Amino acid sequence: MSLKRFSQSIDGTIPIQALLYDDEELLGSQDNVGIYDGQQKSPRHQSGTAYITSHRLFYVDGPKPDSCSFSIDLSHVSRTDYYAGLFTSSPKVTLYLAGDVSSESNDEHAPSIWECQVCGNHNSPGFSPSAARICGLCGVPRDAADDSTEGSSAPHLSSSLPASGFAGPVQRSSKDPVPCPACTFLNHPSLRTCELCETDLPRRPSRRELQSAPVSRPHSPDNDEEGDPANMLIKVSFRKGGDKAIYGALKTSLNGKSTAEAETGALEFVSETGILRTVENSVQERETSMHDALQDLEALMVKAKDMVNLAAELNDKLTAASSTNVPEEATFIRSSLTQLGLHIDNAPVTQDMTKDERRWHEELARELAKVLQAGLMRDKGIVALDEVWGGWNRARGVALIPPATFLQVIPLLPQYTTPQVSTRKFVSGASAFSARLAGFLVMHGSRTTLEIALEMELDMEGSNEAGMSVSLCKEMVEDCEREGGVCRDDVGQCAIVGGGGVGVEVRWWPNLFVGYVWDGQSEEDD
């Protein structure tokens, strides 16, 4: 009967949630139900609980849950009917079943992890048979990858069929291209693997395999009623109500099944959609993780600030109590703070320490002066502005200074530095702490920009021009050129672009024409 043909036995002693697939959802349940197999009652299934999920109908028997429970895949349901009941007749929901169940028995390998031969994605087990047959990344069916191994055994099935001119499939010519079962690329008939994705191609049956078997009649089914469409149904009888809720859940599940089948068909034809959707989901998850990480970092900065304040309070109390008779406790606490990295002799200045913004900028300028003279400008007299800002923030730890506040502090530096540290802004917009470069060019003669940067590092160690980068040196040389201190030699081995030389091969000479009085020119015109 239809119940034996379409149902699968389950162990009803296991909780129903443990029997669900990863992509399956429980929609409703109702107890005190009975099952009709076709038009007749099923004697073994008259007192149990029915469960409707997004993929299956479960029946868990009450008296014998381990042996009389079963499930039916809703993909076999072609249509449904609802009977509200009359007098002593109970409400019933009728499920008309159709389809071939032989293919479902071949899906025993679905719970295992399998790798897609097209994109290499490892698909996890636990999904429903319809979802497990399709790669979750590219949408290529799993059966397409297995056709190459099953194709060689498929022609042997003709041995049990009657000899008929139209019973077998239409045979292709040996010169016809062979379509790939995974990517549908048409390959040359002599190839064994796909030229595009390297999937094994189905083999052509040989002449010996295509020979018809002796005429034989297939075995007749044991019961002719199984093929009768009128008996291909089951009924769920509701003895104590709940029929409307279960029928609504059943219709919801069947509508979702049809939508899923349409989406699956779309993925089979447009596999790029699945790849793009997966990439978008990965990017969104990465952005969400980054956002959460930044929030955690902000919370950590707040906690670190509280710990620093606590360490400062402890340090003040220990300093005030240093004259008491408990020096051992004070020494122990101070050493503990040092081991925890909370030694605050040089604690950074924060805005909450001062009420006046002007006072806060002055304290920041005093702190920056210590950083410059003790570290950043110890071995060089000119430093790029971004290098100063980055080094200062590294020294401050979690109490970072924004660029706007940094630019407001720079003009106050000369008040707290000895010798005074000032700023210089080039025409290109780059700011730096500098001194003039013209004297160096006069002393060393013709040099390229690269030679100037290297020789200033080696020969002028300890001067204001030592320790500059090539880009900063180039800015200063061009600034001297605009002031008339040096001349550009761009006729040598450099490229000529718009009348001016470019590149490090441009040589620079001292401007020896400065101060000359030319014929016809008075000294007052200089």
From TrEMBL:
Annotated spans, Disordered: 146-172, 205-229
Q: Which PROSITE patterns match?
A: GLUE
- The answer to keyword Cell cycle applying to this record is no
Residues of the GLUE N-terminal domain: 10-266
Q: Where is the composition biased (Low complexity)?
A: 151-165
**Protein transport as UniProt keyword:** yes
Q: Which Gene3D superfamilies does the record match to this protein?
A: 6.10.140.260, Pleckstrin-homology domain (PH domain)/Phosphotyrosine-binding domain (PTB), Winged helix-like DNA-binding domain superfamily/Winged helix DNA-binding domain, Zn-finger domain of Sec23/24
Q: What is this protein called?
A: Vacuolar protein-sorting-associated protein 36
Localization: Cytoplasm; Endosome
Query: GO molecular function: any one?
Result: phosphatidylinositol-3-phosphate binding
Q: State whether it acts alone or in a complex, and with which partners, per the record.
A: Component of the endosomal sorting complex required for transport II (ESCRT-II).
Predominant subcellular localization, coarse grouping? cytoplasm
Fetch the PANTHER family from UniProt: VACUOLAR PROTEIN-SORTING-ASSOCIATED PROTEIN 36
Source organism per UniProt: Ephemerocybe angulata
Superkingdom, taxonomy of origin: Eukaryota
What does the record list as GO biological process? protein transport to vacuole involved in ubiquitin-dependent protein catabolic process via the multivesicular body sorting pathway
> What InterPro entries does the record tag this protein with?
GLUE_dom, PH-like_dom_sf, Snf8/Vps36, Vps36, WH-like_DNA-bd_sf, WH_DNA-bd_sf, Znf_RanBP2
**Family named by the database record:** Belongs to the VPS36 family.
> Which terms are listed as keywords in the entry?
Cytoplasm, Endosome, Metal-binding, Protein transport, Transport, Zinc, Zinc-finger
User: GO cellular component terms?
Assistant: ESCRT II complex; late endosome membrane
Q: Its function? A: Component of the ESCRT-II complex (endosomal sorting complex required for transport II), which is required for multivesicular body (MVB) formation and sorting of endosomal cargo proteins into MVBs.
Q: Which SUPFAM superfamilies match?
A: PH domain-like, Winged helix' DNA-binding domain
